[in-house]
Write a structure and sequence with these properties.
single chain, about 0% strand, mainly alpha, about 240 residues
Length: about 240
Amino acid sequence: MENTLLTQEQTHEYVKKIKDLELACYEQNLLHENLKKKLVCVNKDLLKYTDYLAELPQKPEEPVSVEGKRKFTIIGSIVSFILGCLIYWSDGIRSLISGCLLLAFFLIASLASNRGIKYNYSQELEDYNKKLKEWQMQKASRTSAVDNQKKYKKYIMRLIEECKQKENETKHVLKKFYDLEYLYPKYQGIVPICTIYEYLESGRCDSLIGSNGAYNLYEQELLMKTIIDKLDDVIDRLDDIA
């Protein structure tokens, strides 16, 4: 597992390649996790759109009493007229006047009642049509939103599969490089390999082994707790020297 078969230039290129693969795995894994979180949010939105819909407004029933009162008014008028005639023949002009007044009152009250019922029904029907239109617009908007979310979900799921495939491919290539056994297993990983690459790139070390090698320097700084173990900090430092 020593690098005796590699030149200084080859060692640098070998470590650089592993570093690039490790960072690619890290970024692909980060993207994979973010996409899975996005998928959870999309599923929540789909559930919200599916559950949220106002109840369908109920159409008001047309009052049967309108037509019934109309018939009742006609029949009542005929009956009142007949009674008025009978009263006139039996009791004279005063009874006829009283009967006519009673008939007029009956007709006015019936007509006013019919008109009131018609007016109330018209208002209810107008309110119903307005609410129905709003409900239909809301349903159309929700249906469109659900369709868009379903398409977006398929898109996210496709990205997840693609990301997962690329991540597996990168890990497979990385494993092949590690399997060449030019690097001790202890120093295999994104933090140690990025740190070792920094040593080689900055010129602090020109090899992996030896008293002035990257392994030795890594162990010294690890012992002094100066090794950066946070991935974000490691990546930030690599950007400065890349």
